[in-house]
Amino acid sequence: RDQPGYAVSLTAETTTGVILTKDFNFGNDKQFTLPEDLGERAALSLLDELFTGGCVDSTNQSTVFLLMAIASSDNISALKLGRITT
Hints:
Layout: E1 6-13, E2 19-26, H1 35-52, H2 61-69
């Protein structure tokens, strides 16, 4: 069922070419009362991603781990992460 709301998606590219993203959405819960609150929280979260370092943002870590796990045994993978999220 569709619910009214709004969303924001922010993307940043580092000087080394790493692209990090952060997505937030607002539905019917009263977590955000104004769109500006959502934008502020998304911007702060993106800055948090940038300051933790690494080459994979927290949203996409599980996908990268899965792809590394199913890679062929003669293809060695290496990955630089900031903090690991659950």
